[in-house]
Amino acid sequence: MQMAMEESRLQASHMLQSSLQSNGDRRYATPPQQIAAYNRNSIPQYKDTVTPDLLQPKTPDVSILFGEDIFNIDPELDYNVFFPVNNGELNVNGQIGGSVTAVLADLEAIWTHCINKLLGIKSIEFHNYQVILIIPDIFNKVHVREMMSMILLSMKFKSCLLVQDHVAATYGAGLGCACVVDVGHGKTSVSCVEDGISQANTRIRLRYGGGNITQAFDWLLKRCSFPYQECNPTANYHDALLMDNLKQQLCHLNLDKCGAVQKTVTIMRPGQKHLQYTIQVGDEAMIAVLGMFNPTLLGITDNNHYVIQERLKSLPEDPYDEEFLRETSRRGNGREMNEMIEIQTENNTVHNAEEEICVDQIEATAGNYFDIETGRPQSLDKVIVQSIERLTSDDIKRKMYSNILVVGGGLKFDGACAWLKSKISLNAQQVYYGGHIDIINSPKDLDPQIVTWKGAAILAGLDSVSELWISGKEWSSWSIRILKERAMFNW
Predict the structure, then answer these.
(1) What is the pTM of this model?
(2) Do 165 and 191 meet the contact criterion of CB atoms below 8 Å apart?
(3) Where does the chain cross the membrane (predicted)?
(4) Which of 154, 278, 300, 390 could form a disulfide with 377 if both were Cys (CB 3.0 to 4.6 A apart)?
């Protein structure tokens, strides 16, 4: 993998060196050897500011910590750190605390803590409040059912409204239709939304995002003799925070920014004085972000880092479940066929059997919507074009190309949207589209990170969804069966 990453790094470096600035001048870059020599000779400076000591071993009042408080605990203490959500879905795994029940318990504890502490709403007052639950465009029915039960039956909120994240983003941006690109920390999802409906055959989720860019930037800095040699973002929370801050401050895709940039880095270690280094960073700040367009730079060398919308898992308690209806329909057809065998010829019987086999084969492959190149990871621009090209109407395709909505905090870099537009234009030409392409990343001057939440807030006040709220009593009586009528999407 390291060899593949190094190859891709060299390709990206040569491509940047041969690129032009907006004024037509050729870009210039500081040689990596010169940057590495500067960083090796960087002399650390100690400041008088001291980072507070880490928390002492467990006591009853700190047996459970939430959010940024984990940065203040000693890694040597006997704590288990859990992340209930990972890669855009519940973090269900085979490790300790990885069961659905345990993950939901952690999620409930986090939500309760945040609502109590940050919003000032006591748990006993939850019954006075309504909740909008934003779920992924590619969702797991079991997870949705359990989260609804947690909100309405365990936390006892008054009612709940379900909405998919990409649909909420279009409401936040004020768009009737859009190709929504949500770049998060550990995942990137794409789908086309038309009139409040996320089109199932256009949905795809990539298992990489802003966090992978941070890891790539860490790797690139160490190649340039980053003076803080002890930096270990995968094991130390403070180092992870440091690298994320450096990524946000330094990384970009602006071809007009050339040469090395000088930056003062402050190292904060618990119980010790702040340590400062002055470093230089060159095109590494661009190459890390280019990983979204060449995933090999992110350490992704296969095509297994994606999820598409396949047939949803069957739920036995749902009488409207597609799998249930399909199986019962087949059993009914089987009984009818047995009755007709006595009066039909053998040829007709064989013909019907062949038809049933053909239907099964079509259903078995119906979820394979995306043409993923074998053995090669997919770049963001190619996936966006593939998603739009899944649509059947040329008119709708034109609307999607002219309304590509980028939300989330994973691609908030100077010049990133212009670069994305250029790459999409090149890929669109290969499918014979030469029309207008527009990238929207700050609709109504909103931060891309809050567009989806803004959309959910707008939805809450619409009269058109007043009949879609589900109360705790209704959920207790009907469970998921009520979602056939109340969900804003095809359940």
Answers:
(1) 0.87
(2) no
(3) none
(4) 300
